[in-house]
Specification:
Blueprint (H helix, E strand, L loop, with lengths): L1 H34 L1
Length: 36
């Protein structure tokens, strides 16, 4: 059971990290679009 939760946790962490990176890239492009 613990391994199952650990796997889920790792997958969740990776997903949230990727989401953060994606949103940061999106904000960069968005800010650039506003500036120009």
């Amino acid at each position: 059971v613990i391994k199952f939760f650990l796997d889920k946790y790792i997958v969740f962490k990776k997903a949230s990290l990727k989401l953060k990176e994606t949103s940061q890239e999106f904000l960069k492009y968005f800010g650039f679009a506003i500036l120009t």
